[in-house]
């Protein structure tokens, strides 16, 4: 039985959480004349709390609210998908018709890492779900309807067609509530507490607006009795809106289809058990499962009552009939439907049209079908014909034989064509495979594969480390160079992650096109690089020469680049330590010194930058990417070449002269040292909004303030002022505009190693010897006999040996003028 005296309520409480207080209480108790029809559905949000429900001096825990150290954003009342207990959000349904009392107790193990200013840690939020809770009320001046009817002067049910009902038994308890309420009789609606307040539904009005009404929203048809404009719908509840190409009913539900003959409206798919039909008129009742569909009634009248007033009777079409609709609130309703054999809109004149069953349902007759108004007639097939189940028609026996023969011929021809197609496909695949095999062989010879094989076979040390891979091996290793295997892209090629047949994880580099004249040089380069064996240089396993551009196979380094590490640390609360920064600098300097000091040939890297310094699983630095490196004989001091590299790391003297030497790598290494010291990007934006080059910024600032004010605060905290001054002086030397004013990588490595030994001795830790024995290809490396005050002495030596110390022009001033450049 329905309870007309009801209203929807929405509860929302926010309890501030204060330091030192562990228990919080929240009560919501109804009066004697109020009760809740359904469960109370609450969303509770908070962090680090146990939630208890108190009842009759007893308590039971209903949920636990936990959060990560980052906290969470509190849920809204529309958030019905919060997982129980997860992320500080809990959805709970309480069986409390008279109200409830909740208690929140802070757990001791939560809140240790509470972030400042996070609302989800500082508050407890309790609010009802998106559908408001129905709250019923009743009259309590008399216990029952019988008692109330004894005194008609105070009797509340004064309207005709009204009746009295005792207060309902609680749905959640076995007790009765004292009091009574009034209701309109079935088929009537309105206010039973005033004279003539209950009346039949008069809301449906026939509209005759001609063709001036819009009948579609985007691609959805809006048939009468529904409408989009005032005066175009039969009743107010059927007035729809077209908002942003979405057809909506009650301004809350999107409509996907309206079928007036079936009396169904399809809404957006939703969980009916969770949200019901909130916002819709009580003329609609739920139906369907796959899509959220609702049946509708045109009025709260029975068919018999509706036919008593033909001016408001909805079934306007001659070939239509009235159907009863059972609404959710036990009210009787009705709708219209076209009679059997007719289809269309029963709510307009001549809206139901005859259906030609012979066309709409082939095979409805096992013979000849004849359509009639509202029905159809079947007759037998003519003589010498019979009904064909496949064609759904009457056909002759001869025709059936011809059809069977045609089927046999068609199947034979089809199998023949299929066999021919398979044979052609196999031949084409074999032909393509031969072409690919010849092309790979041609590329192998063009890329000097025979020369590389001779170089490998002539050097026993190279044979153990250098491999010539086939293209098929690398395709299997990279899943045909799948885009998900891409590790990075650069100006010199693309790098893929691969897993070889022996389960080694490698990085495979596909370089950009190189000139045919450079192939021999490339092969010599590969042969020499394969002999490099240094713990701080990425190992070259081999190459593949069967492609247009040779592929290089390197050892896979798992922890990304130094650039990624610095960028992550600059944006996070923790930063790289002074000891780790110094260790990485020593490792990179040692690797570059190793490359420059080869006995038979030197290697100028030419692209030293933080993104080309990789970090393995132990965060050991590995110098990589020799795509632009140049090999130089031992008697050469420089090579003249086209300027290549990365802006910000490029040696200014190399940019002007095109002469590449080992001091060019020294300058680039100085910029990497700056990145480790300042923890800033190469081109960064100052507080004033201007863009500055990192090297130019450092050299300018060093002239006007001490180094301790320039380096990153985290670095300065881990180092002494003397250590910061020493390494700042070393950076200043490396960034000298003229190459002959800069130290060699050997001198740089010695200064850094000495500084690291001092730092390690200060911490009473013996540093691990990062130097390895060089391969026989390299000569012995001289060690410094004394490293004290090395940075100061190094600066003096460089300045004293420079013929440009009293130079006629200043390239440094020229470089400083370009320090502030756009990215």
UniProtKB/TrEMBL annotation:
Ranges where the Protein kinase domain occurs: 481-752
Presence of keyword Transcription: no
Binding site for ATP: 515
GO CC terms in record: plasma membrane
Cellular localisation: Membrane
Coiled-coil regions listed: none
GO terms assigned for molecular function: ATP binding; calcium ion binding; polysaccharide binding; protein serine/threonine kinase activity
GO BP of this protein: cell surface receptor signaling pathway
Keyword Ligase tagged: no
Membrane topology of the entry: Single-pass type I membrane protein
Source taxon at top rank: Eukaryota
SUPFAM superfamilies (alphabetical): Growth factor receptor domain, Protein kinase-like (PK-like)
InterPro entries: EGF, EGF-like_Ca-bd_dom, EGF_Ca-bd_CS, Growth_fac_rcpt_cys_sf, Kinase-like_dom_sf, Prot_kinase_dom, Protein_kinase_ATP_BS, Ser/Thr_kinase_AS
Residue ranges crossing the lipid bilayer per the database entry: 403-428
Spans annotated as Disordered: 766-786
UniProt keywords, alphabetically: ATP-binding, Disulfide bond, EGF-like domain, Glycoprotein, Kinase, Membrane, Nucleotide-binding, Serine/threonine-protein kinase, Signal, Transferase, Transmembrane, Transmembrane helix
PANTHER family, sorted: OS04G0307900 PROTEIN, WALL-ASSOCIATED RECEPTOR KINASE-LIKE 21
Name of the protein: Protein kinase domain-containing protein
Record organism: Oryza punctata (Red rice)
């Amino acid at each position: 039985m329905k309870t007309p005296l009801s209203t929807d309520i929405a509860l929302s409480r926010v309890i501030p959480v204060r330091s030192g207080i562990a228990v919080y209480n929240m009560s919501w108790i109804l009066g004697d004349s109020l009760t809740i029809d359904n469960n109370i559905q609450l969303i509770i949000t908070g962090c680090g709390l146990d939630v208890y429900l108190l009842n009759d001096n007893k308590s039971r825990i209903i949920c636990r609210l936990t959060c990560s150290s980052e906290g969470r954003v509190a849920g809204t009342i529309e958030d019905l998908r919060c997982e129980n207990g997860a992320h500080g959000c809990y959805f709970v349904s309480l069986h409390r018709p008279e109200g409830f009392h909740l208690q929140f107790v802070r757990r001791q193990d939560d809140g240790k890492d509470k972030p400042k200013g996070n609302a989800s840690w500082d508050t407890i939020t309790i609010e009802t779900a998106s559908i408001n809770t129905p709250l019923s009320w009743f009259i309590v001046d008399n216990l029952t309807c019988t008692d109330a009817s004894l005194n008609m002067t105070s009797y509340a049910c004064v309207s005709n067609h009204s009746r009295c009902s005792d207060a309902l038994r609680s749905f959640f308890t076995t007790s009765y509530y004292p009091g009574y309420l009034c209701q309109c009789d079935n088929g009537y609606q309105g206010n039973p507490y005033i004279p003539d307040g209950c009346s039949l539904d008069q809301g449906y009005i026939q509209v005759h607006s001609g063709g001036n009404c819009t009948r579609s929203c985007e691609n959805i048809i809006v048939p009468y009795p529904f409408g989009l404009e005032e005066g175009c719908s039969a009743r107010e509840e059927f007035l729809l809106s077209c908002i942003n190409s979405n057809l909506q009913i009650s301004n809350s539900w999107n409509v996907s289809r309206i079928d007036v003959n079936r009396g169904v409206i399809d809404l957006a798919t939703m969980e009916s058990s969770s949200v019901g039909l909130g916002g819709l008129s009580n003329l609609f009742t739920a139906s369907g499962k796959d899509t959220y569909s609702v049946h509708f009634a045109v009025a709260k009248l029975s068919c018999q009552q509706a036919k008593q007033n033909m001016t408001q009777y909805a079934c306007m079409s001659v070939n239509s009939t009235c159907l009863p609709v059972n609404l959710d609130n036990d009210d009787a309703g009705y709708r219209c439907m076209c009679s059997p054999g007719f289809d269309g809109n029963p709510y307009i004149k001549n809206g139901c049209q005859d259906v030609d069953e012979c066309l709409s349902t082939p095979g409805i007759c096992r013979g000849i079908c004849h359509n009639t108004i509202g029905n159809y007639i079947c007759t037998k097939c003519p003589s010498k014909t019979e009904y064909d189940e496949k064609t759904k028609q009457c056909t002759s026996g001869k025709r059936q034989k011809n059809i069977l023969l045609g089927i046999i011929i068609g199947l034979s021809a089809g199998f023949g064509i299929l066999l021919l197609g398979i044979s052609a496909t196999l031949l084409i695949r074999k032909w393509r495979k031969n072409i690919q095999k010849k092309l790979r062989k041609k590329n192998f010879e063009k890329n000097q594969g025979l020369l590389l094989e001779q170089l490998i076979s002539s050097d026993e040390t190279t044979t153990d480390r250098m491999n010539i891979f086939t293209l098929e091996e690398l395709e299997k290793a990279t899943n045909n160079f799948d885009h998900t295997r891409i590790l990075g892209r650069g100006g010199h090629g693309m790098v893929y992650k691969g897993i070889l047949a022996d389960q080694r994880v490698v990085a495979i580099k596909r370089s950009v096109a190189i000139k045919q004249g450079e192939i021999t040089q490339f092969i010599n380069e590969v042969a020499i690089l394969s002999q490099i064996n240094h713990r701080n240089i990425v190992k070259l396993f081999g190459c593949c020469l069967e492609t247009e551009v040779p592929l290089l196979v390197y050892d896979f380094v798992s922890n990304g680049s130094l650039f990624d590490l610095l960028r992550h640390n600059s944006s996070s609360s923790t930063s790289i330590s002074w000891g780790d920064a110094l260790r990485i600098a020593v490792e990179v300097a040692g690797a570059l010194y190793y490359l420059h000091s080869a006995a038979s040939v030197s290697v100028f890297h030419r692209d030293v930058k933080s993104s080309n310094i990789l970090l393995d699983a132990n965060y050991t630095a590995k110098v990589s990417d020799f795509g632009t490196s140049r090999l130089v004989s031992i008697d050469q001091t420089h090579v003249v070449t086209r300027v290549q590299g990365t802006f910000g790391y490029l040696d200014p003297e190399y940019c002007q002269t095109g002469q590449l030497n080992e001091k060019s790598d020294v300058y680039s290494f100085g910029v990497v040292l700056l990145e480790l010291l300042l923890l800033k990007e190469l081109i960064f934006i100052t507080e004033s909004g201007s863009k500055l080059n990192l090297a130019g910024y450092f050299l300018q600032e060093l002239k006007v303030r001490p180094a301790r004010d320039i380096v990153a605060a985290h670095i300065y905290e881990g180092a002494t002022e003397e250590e910061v001054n020493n390494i700042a002086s070393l950076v200043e030397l490396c960034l000298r505009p003229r190459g002959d004013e800069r130290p060699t990588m050997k001198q740089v490595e010695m200064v850094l190693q000495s500084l690291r030994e001092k730092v390690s001795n200060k911490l009473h830790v013996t540093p691990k010897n990062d130097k390895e024995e060089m391969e026989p290809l390299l000569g012995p490396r001289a060690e410094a006999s004394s490293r004290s005050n090395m940075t100061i002495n190094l600066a003096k030596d460089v300045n004293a040996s420079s013929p440009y110390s009293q130079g006629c022009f200043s390239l440094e001033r020229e470089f400083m003028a370009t320090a502030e450049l756009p990215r």
